Amino acid sequence: FRASDWKLDHPDWTGRLRVTSKGKTAYIKLEDKVSGELFAQAPIDQYPGIAVETVTDSSRYFVIRIQDGTGRSAFIGIGFTDRGDAFDFNVSLQDHFKWVKQETEISKESQEADTRPKLDLGFKEGQTIKLNIGNMTTKKGGVAKPRVSGSGGLSLLPPPPGGKIAVPPIPPPSSTAIANHVTPPPVLKSSNVSSA
Predict the structure, then answer these.
(1) What are phi and psi for residue 148, nearest 5 degrees?
(2) 15-108 architecture in CATH?
(3) In a designed cystine with 149, which of 1, 144, 155, 182 is the match (CB 3.0 to 4.6 A)?
(4) Is the pTM of this model over 0.90?
């Protein structure tokens, strides 16, 4: 379909378009601007598909299949004056069918989960477990001994095995060493500044 073949300057009908959904089916409803009376309706089972097609020469025009209550159908061309409205129309249909696809996948996964054997992680009758927490062993009827820390509440760990203690090297004394000497940053030479 080509929109340039249509009489775009004088459309046969103008009105309001609404996209609604009921279950997995989306509906394009063409309604009167003022009264809201339904002019035509197009049920859509899948998108993209035969119920809504884009034209080859514009992103603002579409061909939809409208149907009445008796099952009769006709193809009509619709168009939007604003490109943003056409984009929103397209995105709303894509979002609806993306939701339908996700719902279908979720229901399939839940049915597959019901057929798989369930993993029973509960305790059987009479089954017990034993937990060892650190070095806190207790005697029957006794109280656990608290760990003794070094003086001041700070305990130090021994050095790692095979580790060497590195002593920082001491610089050799020089005869011109000045205490608290700070070296100034280097001065960049520029062609505009003369050095004195």
Answers:
(1) -95, 130
(2) Roll (2.30)
(3) 155
(4) no
Any idea what DSSP says for residue 189?
Answer: P
**pLDDT tens digit string along 26-79?**
999 999 888 988 988 999 888 888 888 888 888 888 999 998 878 889 998 988
Compute how many other C-beta atoms are within 10 angstroms of the C-beta atom of residue 139: 8
Q: Minimal CA–CA distance to 52: which of 111, 16, 92, 81?
A: 92
Residue written as token pair 């997995």: 24
From 11, 19, 8, 15, select the one nearest 42 (Cα to Cα). Answer: 19
Between CA 64 and CA 76 the distance in angstroms is 6
Query: Which CA distances in Å does 45 have to 29, 53, 83?
Result: 14, 13, 25
Phi, psi of 23 (to 5 degrees): 70, -130
Which residue do the tokens 């099952």 mark?
71
Q: Where are the domains of the chain?
A: 15-108
pLDDT at 196: 44
What is the rounded CA–CA span in Å between residue 81 and residue 58?
A: 12
* Token pair of 29 as six digits: 């409803």
φ, ψ of residue 175 to 5 degrees: the values are: -75, -20
Element (H or E) spanning 105, and its range?
helix 83-115
In tens, the pLDDT along 6-29 reads 877 888 888 999 999 898 899 999
Q: Which two tokens stand for residue 180?
A: 């608290």
